[in-house]
Structure of Helix-turn-helix protein:
Amino acid sequence: MKEKSCWQPRACALAGIDPRVYRRQPIRPEDRELREPLRDPSGERRRFGYRRLHILLRREGWALNWIEARQSNDPGDRLQGVALYRIHREEGLTVRKRGGRKRALGTRAPMAIPQGPNRRWSLDFVSDSLSDGRRFRIL
C-alpha cells in the first residue's frame, strides 16, 4: 500500500478485508504469571479440566472468572483479560478424550451345522424375577 501510494480503504476493499482489521494491532496481556500456577496442579492431576483448575486457582488467591484473571493481593491491573481457557489450551493441558470400546477385528466364522443328533450341546441361561422384584438366573 505504501509503495503504490494507494488509499487505505480502497486497498482493503480490493484485498477483501475490513480497514479496522488492518489498522488494529491486537495487544495480548502478559500471562506468564498465570501459566506456572496453572501448570502445577494439572501436572499432578491430568483429568482436571480448566474449570476444575479455575476452582483450585481461586483457592490459592487468584481473582478469576472464566475469562479474566488477576492476582487478588496485588492492587494493580495485572493480568486483566487473560483467557484462562486459551492459556490452558496453549499449554497443552487439555484433557484427552478416553478411547472408545475396542471392536473385534475381522469376521467371525459361521457356526457349523450339526450333522446329526447329539453332535452339539449348548447351555442356555433362563432369567426370571421373583414377586419381590429380585432377578435370578438358572442354567
